[in-house]
UniProtKB/TrEMBL annotation, chain A:
PANTHER family reported in the protein's UniProt record: SODIUM/HYDROGEN EXCHANGER, SODIUM_HYDROGEN EXCHANGER 1
Chain ranges of the Cation/H+ exchanger transmembrane domain: 90-488
Top-rank lineage group of the source organism: Eukaryota
Disordered as annotated region, ranges: 732-790
A single GO BP: sodium ion import across plasma membrane
Protein name in the entry: Sodium/hydrogen exchanger
Keyword match Ubl conjugation: yes
Organism of this sequence: Dicentrarchus labrax
Annotated gene: slc9a1a
InterPro entries in UniProt: Cation/H_exchanger_CPA1, Cation/H_exchanger_TM, NaH_exchanger, NHE-1-like, NHE_CaM-bd
Amino acid sequence: MASRTGTHSPAGICKSLPERGLLLLMVLVFLEGSVLPLGAASSPDVTHQANSDNHIVKEAGHNFTKKPFPVLSLDYHHIQAPFEISLWVLLASLMKLGFHLIPRLSGIVPESCLLIVVGLLVGGLIKLAGEQVPPVLDSRLFFLCLLPPIILDAGYFLPIRPFMENLGTILMFAVVGTLWNAFFVGGLLYAVCQIQPGNPSILHQLELLPCLLFGSIISAVDPVAVLAVFEEIHINELLHILVFGESLLNDAVTVVLYHLFEEYAGVGSVTVMDVFLGIISFLVVAVGGVLVGAIYGILAAFTSRFTSHTRVIEPLFVFVYSYMAYLSAEMFHLSGIMSLIACGAVMRPYVEANISHKSHTTIKYFLKMWSSVSETLIFIFLGVATVEGPHNWNWTFVTVTVILCLVARVIGVVGLTYVINKFRIVKLTTKDQFIVAYGGLRGAIAFSLGFLLNKDHFPLRDMFLTAIITVIFFTVFVQGMTIKPLVELLAVKKKQEAKRSINEEIHTQFLDHLLTGIEDICGHYGHHHWKDKLNRFNKKYVKKCLIAGERSKEPQLIAFYHKMEMKQAIELVESGGGVKLPSAMPSAVSMQNIQPKKLPPAKPAERALSNLPKGREEEIRKILRSNLQRTRQRLRSYNRHTLLADPYEDGLGDLLIKKQKMIELERKIKDMNNYLTVPAAPPDSPTMCRARLASDPQAYSMKPEPDSVPTIQVDLASPQSPDSVNLMDEFRRAEQQHEEDQGLMMKPPSGESGPKKPGEEDGSREHKLMRCLSDPGPSADEDEDEPFLP
Amino acid sequence: MGASQTRSEHKYQDLADKTGFSLEQITNLHKRFQQLSGNEDTLSRQNLDNIPALANNPIRNQIIEAFFDKRNQHQDEVGSFNEIGFEQFLMVMSHFRPPTLKTTEEEKEALRKEKLRFLFNMHDTDNDGTITLVEYRKVVEELLSKSGAIEQETAKAIADAAMLEVASTNVPDMAPDDFYEGITFEHFEQILKGLEMESRMHIRFLDVDTTTMRCGKSTS
């Protein structure tokens, strides 16, 4: 999963920077601590003032006592709530910033630990100032505001393939594992509490059901903590999805157990009927949550089909539908987390096919931003709540809880893996089991659930809270800090950082079909068979409804290829065109190297084609760059509501018009280069339709390519070829030079049967480029006025 | 009944050692083989063609051809059979066995090579040891064949891009005059290193007999 920790400080930090970071930290912490008492102090004054004013006015009736006009007055109460919220958010963000300015620290200690410490400091400061700590980890605030962004981020970017492949394992861990943990911890705790016969302690008051409730609260692996820690250790995909998937799916179990035990703790006994109802309830909660999420996801996908003219609010649909899915699920006491995951996962493939590139980036960055801030806030609040929370320390209870949690987790994982490995094809090794067991971190959800408990029904609530906090601290600090060195020590397989290549994509698809075919030959309906059936259903019916225009028919391989081309084009454009694409093509290999050389020997021009001299290339690039810089000057005003009528697309439109002119010029040398003839472009190709759909009112009108026009080959896979997109102006200037070179430039990768694309493909690529070039990407989007090529 | 059973078990034991399947799996696969071949001793291309579920598969021809490819029998022969017996059928199937918990690293490496070799043979139809551009283009075209009206040019472009990628990663310093003949097996291995074939290219072979659940539609 992409790192949410923001940019790292550049190398070569001067010594003052870490100190500055620390100073910033201290300042913020003091600020935080000082503002709150100020707020508390000033508000009664203001209200008093207001009252007295009112009183005076009422009393005076007609005669107003004239006071000097207040030039400057302080009214903190007016803005208190939003101000404090903003201060907290600011503190959280500055903390994040500060941690990365101190290089060594972020390597040793995971961010979550540091944030909890900061929270402790802030909480301590507030308490020192004598003020009441705000109930920051209030359950409503937590469950309705802080948790959803993190879960949505996780769900939207959930890697579906490994998740589905390991779904059985994940469900086993989530459901059976959590149940085991809950009952083991709860039951044994109760036994231990009853043990001490000699001195009747407070523990003897503890009934079985509250113990089981406590067990169910403490046993659930927490997605926030897991995300925070696992993000930094980069283990392989399988383990990551196992632990993370478990943390997400155990929400249903936790919800049911929690409500069940809470409901009946008052009564004091649970009958078989209740247990049966509980099981039914679990199914309802889980399946219902997923259904609610899926429905909202489909609605969002359907809505996004029509947003081609209002691109600006596309991200909003994604966020609002998802949040409503969460709230709807919570309304019925279904599993909100599962609903959110289902919503994000269902809507993503369709929404991404429909929305513009800019919206895609927006969604990605907003989600990452919100979830990052949320996570930071949660950990800080954990620290603050620890300082404040009503504590009731009981050595026996707390230590037994911690030990039991660990033991239960280990036994659970080992036992379940033994059973699971009988059904898995790729078995889980001992190393894997260790990481899964060790990665079972508890977090703020447990605390919030404990906080929700009613003190009347649960007189020992404070003790519970203390124990929960201790377990959380233990898992986050001890396990969180040591998991990284342990991963190194055990040489656990790490995540593969390599970018997905087109070959891998081709072969993944090939493998899918191959394995489905082999399964069919073998005669049994396995996993691949059903996946294939689902894919075909999806392609035949669902995509038609939910994806706008012609993209509904686009097969996955082609979609991937286009995406890759776009990425390469953006990369090249961002790097100024002069640098070769760093990632994909660090070599000088071009299309000419792989084309079979079947050139008729007599044509000198074609022979010349195969030697594109390096100097010429450099010159081309230089000219390109200067040309692009001239385009920069053209600025137009833009409409806030469309946001599409910006200089990027205008510039490209001009270039494309120029390209048309160049095509005319092409005719002159057509005879020499017979390989330039191209099949006629169909008049209204799908890609053109899509392009029109994606266009905005201000966009240029693209003439369909005339037939039998030798096209400019735009082979973006080659390092040189993206230049050819922008070589229009270049042609005009280079016209004076020898014509062979012109042919050269038109088709820098030579080869008589080079990959030719018909006109509409070319045109569509322009359109696609337009769609993507209008968004310069993360690094260059500060300035709206900046042209599309930096 | 008893005698023939021990005889077949003995025969299967041979096969089990050669291919690595368990006896139950071999029994099941034999039943399936009988079903497909119409209780004959050999299987022809026609038999496999008639499997209805394969009709939707875009690469069915390659898959069927792979069964009849002599290179997949690990006996250093080339060419193709017209019909295959149960042993050849089993040999081809054995390429899809998963690694077990006890598989060592070297064995995993060997398994991966074997699977990649199978894939390579599927692409390299003229058996010259390399996958040329034409062959690769055919692969991509076939992959996209069932996805509606795909422009030929797109398939070509994708294949070309893929080829270019292989060339770039494996032979980065090619002079402009050099010609990249085709993807050799080493390059093929290199380019698919990230996919971890030994964990992905497998299907579940059942120990329990499920062939009775399928009606005999698949027989010719």
